[in-house]
Amino acid sequence: MTTPQITQIIRRTDQGATRPFICRADDGNVYYVKGRSASTGERIREWMGTHLATAFGLPVPPMCLLEIPDVLIRSSGDDTAHDLGTGYAVGSRQILAASELRHDEIPLVPANIQQSVLLFDFWVQNEDRTLSDLGGNPNLLWNKATTSLHAIDYNLILPNVFDATEFWQTHVFRHAFAQRGLDEPHKQQFEQQMQHALATWQQAWDQLPEEWLDENQATGSFDGTTVLKRLEHDATGAIWEEFNT
Questions:
Q1: Most buried by CB count within 10 Å: which residue of 56, 64, 141, 176?
Q2: What are the pLDDT digits (tens) for 11-22?
Q3: Is the CB of residue 7 less than 8 Å from the CB of residue 30?
Q4: pLDDT exceeds 80 at position 244
Q5: CB 116 within 8 A of CB 186
């Protein structure tokens, strides 16, 4: 598969710690791109998390690896372009006519989608999807015309430390379940979704750029082996003991 090349840096966003760049690629698409401003561990998490979320069944924008030519950065008039870096980056395709989900729009999101997003985020320990009437950072895009949701940003999943109490207090869909105790059919359904997602792990891992894997091995920023064991354990039903507390 040919890796699309970035041909134009449109602008840098103001959102998120990594402030991704909006770029056009030679495949004709526009992407939100995370390059060197995101750590190697964050780029790996973004790549793996997006694959897991897609296979789990969440509505996720298409994502791919992108190549950033040296000449593009050298010729750019944007002083921040060096934060994008050269080589490989991860890009999430732009979703037109979509804006960040507002608190008053939460009831418009179907209950089953809310539940799937909440449970997936609990499984991958994603604390980066917050929203209340006081504001937050839901990392969810909402298209009013089509009433469709798009779940984005996975660079902070699978952290070394997870605060479950904070998760249940701040997650955008924390009220998706009337109570956390699920019946057996729903538990089995979610376990199947987790197992289906895990079936994509190795293929996604094998697609990671060698330089990312080398950097990650040198820094130890993402322990994929330990993470995978925990995800597999949860997918056999162990998650419910933690989810129900």
A1: 56
A2: 999 877 789 999
A3: no
A4: no
A5: no
**pLDDT mean over 198-217:** 97
DSSP label at residue 39: -
The structure's pTM equals: 0.96
Please spell the DSSP secondary structure of 68-134, one letter per residue: E-HHHHHH---GGGGGT-SEEEEEEE--TT-EEPPGGGGGGS-HHHHHHHHHHHHHTT----EEETT
DSSP 2: P
AA identity, residue 185: P
Q: What is the pLDDT of residues 82-136, one digit of tens each?
A: 899 999 999 999 999 999 999 999 999 999 999 999 999 999 999 999 999 999 9
Strand 21-25 versus strand 6-12 pairing type: antiparallel
Strand boundaries in the chain, DSSP class E: 6-12, 21-25, 30-34, 63-68, 87-93, 99-100, 130-132, 135-137, 140-143, 148-151
Which residue is listed with tokens 């998490």?
A: 45
Quote the pLDDT of residue 78.
76
Burial of 42 (0-12, 13-18, 19+ CB in 10 A): buried
What does the block give as tokens for 221?
């920023």
Q: Which of 19, 232, 17 is CA-nearest to residue 124? A: 232
How many whole angstroms separate alpha carbon 68 and alpha carbon 35?
9
| Integer Cα distance of 180 and 182 in angstroms | 6
Give the separation between CA 189 and CA 113, rounded to whole angstroms.
13
Whether the Cβ atoms of residue 50 and residue 154 lie closer than 8 Å to each other = yes
